[in-house]
Hints:
Blueprint: E1 5-8, E2 16-17, E3 24-26, E4 31-35, E5 68-74, E6 82-92, E7 96-101, E8 127-134, E9 139-144, E10 150-155, E11 159-164, E12 173-174, E13 178-179, E14 182-183, E15 195-199, E16 207-213, E17 230-239, E18 248-250, E19 254-261, H1 264-283, H2 287-297, E20 299-304, E21 310-317
Parallel strand pairs: 1-4, 3-5
Antiparallel strand pairs: 2-12, 4-17, 5-16, 6-15, 6-17, 7-8, 8-9, 9-10, 11-14, 11-16, 13-14, 15-18, 18-19, 19-21, 20-21
Amino acid sequence: MATKTHHINPAVVYYTFGPHPPILHIHPGERVTAGTVDARNWDETGEQIPESRRQAAPDTRLRDSNPQIGPIYVEGAEPGDTLAVRILEIKLNRDWGWSALNPGFGGLVIESRINGPTGLNAALPEQFYRWELDRERMRGRLLLPNSRLKHIEIPLTPFLGCIGVAPRFGQVIFSMAPAEHGGNMDSPETRVGTMIYLPVFVHGAYLFFGDVHAAQGDGETGGSAIETTAEVTLEVNIDKGKHIGWPRFENDDYIMATGSTRPLIDAFRIAHVELIDWLVTDYGFDRLEALQIVTQAGAARIGNVVDPNYTVVAKFPKQFLPL
């Protein structure tokens, strides 16, 4: 029997992760395809989506960044399970993307656009950069009028800046913040071919995804990736009774665990403890011996150092796992 695929065009995008009214109910093994909206609410045609398509809250003002597709209710998912989401396709559907420098935002500033000014340094000037995306060659081109080089071209490696589920304890978390539920991890590892494992905290899991990046360096140092849109296809399954503490990833070469918090060293610690837990529970390693081999053979990537929580991805090569 062919795998069932749901094609969705949601009436509303969400700026918070939580148990909102589901836009779709699916069963394990089914697929979902949807077009995304970029971090500033431009759609695949380059038009801003209307207010009627944006999540609203009667009692507060929402930050309308990183619009999410969802939530998708997964039948049979229960607290204590793990949602297993394979990224099958991220098909760029616009020939340009943008990046920006924003006053008080980014990895090199002290001023905080989110938490308020500190008065400790001057804010960056606001800048907007338009990248031309060659989707056939999968290259991005940016003009550099003030530099000797005059332009630069880089490879495109599309990924989901955001993917996650409804958080624990009835929380509702805005789409700029990563945590145990996933969210805005900004990890280039969440690309086609990767399996994303997400802890389930509520019945139905309530899966969200969005914030496609055409490319991004580790850390998202300036505060924005190459922000764009894509048609995304995911396949969703459940690992019944499989408990994990934080999102995990797996591709052909690595198993990976994430940690998202501040300061950065604590995100590093969380990710590596989660990775060691994985090696112990699933692969039969002694805990201290697992720490030793991670120390010598592990790798780590910084997803972001710009969000309310920073994200670190701890990686372990699958070539060293037992058969």
